Write the structure tokens for this entry.
Amino acid sequence: MDYVTVREFRTRPAKIWQRLEAEKELVITRNGKPFAVLAFTASNRVEDSLRAIRRARFEQALRVQHQRARAAGLDRVTLKDINAEIAAARRATRGKRTRRP
């Protein structure tokens, strides 16, 4: 994968588009740090490309949540524990409900 600075992106757009077509993906950097990804797509594949990007982001977020749950020991919570939490939350909110007109 090739990197392009924001400045280069602004000053040489035609060259960037040619590189994008050849490389298929470019990383845009700002102050030396990656901040965006440009991905080539055909005009008839835009929706498919966006769907794939969104799915990949979702899967990454889910992996992070699983890792956090394991680190916190939440992967060993039983159904009994979950039901006890639900019951406790219900008890805590009993009496605090307001009637709606």
The chain has a mean pLDDT of 91. The first strand starts at residue 2 and ends at 5.
